[in-house]
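R.M. (postdoc): so does anyone remember the format we settled on? I'll just put the structure tokens first.
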């Protein structure tokens, strides 16, 4: 009988230890998941040295490209940029002239840039005059 009591006692201790470890792990996981900040915040705080540039265009929907020609999005959009660095962008929209955006350096929490795109001149080629086949007689086959 004493042997059975020892077996129950050691089993109870093992189960108790497993539950304690599981509880500690659960609290650690919950603390990490609940207390963790988002991995990529939508807006970085001003103390991080980032200026938020708000780009708008008329008409809207212009493609925003960086200095290397990479597409960053379409207007209207917010673009986080490192403060103190130059800003070189080009706004492009079919039927409109490219609109360069150049700023030597940025400072402050937020900057708004509004661009009014100008239409490209139409490239209409002159049409040759129509060929007249008939001189205007009613029964003329040509």
């Amino acid at each position: 009988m004493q042997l059975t009591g020892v077996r129950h006692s050691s089993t109870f201790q093992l189960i108790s230890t497993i539950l304690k470890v599981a509880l500690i792990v659960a609290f650690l996981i919950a603390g990490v998941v609940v207390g963790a900040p988002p991995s990529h915040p939508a807006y970085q705080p001003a103390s991080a040295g980032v200026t938020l540039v708000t780009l708008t265009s008329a008409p809207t929907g212009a493609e925003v490209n960086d200095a290397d020609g990479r597409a960053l999005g379409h207007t209207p959009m917010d673009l986080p940029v490192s403060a103190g660095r130059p800003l070189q962008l080009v706004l492009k929209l079919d039927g409109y002239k490219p609109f360069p955006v150049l700023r030597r350096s940025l400072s402050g929490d937020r900057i708004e840039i509004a661009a009014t795109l100008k239409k490209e001149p139409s490239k209409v080629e002159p049409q040759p005059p129509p060929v007249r086949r008939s001189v205007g007689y009613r029964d003329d086959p040509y």
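R.M.: ...and that's the designed sequence above, right after the tokens. Also worth knowing: The domain at 46-116 is CATH 2.60.40.10 (Immunoglobulin-like). The radius of gyration is 35 Å.
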